[in-house]
Amino acid sequence: MSGFFRKLPRLLTGSVLVFLLLFLNSNTALAQAQTSGTIVVTAVIAPVRYVLIDNKGNIKEILSNTKENITPKVYINSLSSSQATLTIQVYQRYEAIIDKVNTKRTGIIYQNKNKNSIRTAQRLINFIRDESVLLVK
């Protein structure tokens, strides 16, 4: 008998939670049944340009999903690292490269062939995933 009384508060709490879940779930289903309309989901990819640099500040790659001239976000060695500061030296190197490459395309617009880089497919998947924003109307 004493074991039953020790478990009683847990049993009551569990019973109340189950009741609330069933009650709230039935009200949600009723509200959904009475509501009609159309939901439009629009995916928007914000324009962004990434500059990957090595530990010395040399530019390894430039990735872009826009043809616009926007201020780049700087990362050291990988997009999975925390964002670094865009220093004057990195910006000057970036401007010198941008003047020579085709910025009218998207994806990897510059890659320093002398440096080891991240696998291209994984990097592009992360690039698209990180910059996608869903807006619901």
Number of helices: 3
Approximately how much beta-strand content do the residues carry?
15-25%
Largest beta-sheet characterization: 5 strands, mixed
Order of helices and strands: HEEEEEHEHE
Strand count: 7
Summarize model confidence as the mean pLDDT.
Answer: 75
Q: What structural category arises from helix and sheet content?
A: alpha+beta
- Spatial ordering of strands, largest sheet: 5-4-2-3-6
- Ends apart, CA distance between termini: 58 Å
Task: Describe this protein with a few key phrases.
137 residues, five-stranded mixed β-sheet, 3 helices, elongated
What does this structure look like?
- The longest helix has 33 residues, at 2-34.
- The chain has 137 residues and is of the alpha+beta class.
- It has helices spanning 2-34, 88-98, 120-131; strands at 41-45, 49-53, 59-64, 73-76, 83-84, 107-111, 132-136.
- The model has no long low-confidence stretch (mean pLDDT 75).
- It is built from three helices and seven strands; from the N terminus they run H-E-E-E-E-E-H-E-H-E.
- A five-stranded mixed beta sheet has the order 5-4-2-3-6, with helices on one face.
- The protein is elongated.
- The relative contact order is 0.17.
- 41% of the residues lie in helices and 23% in strands.
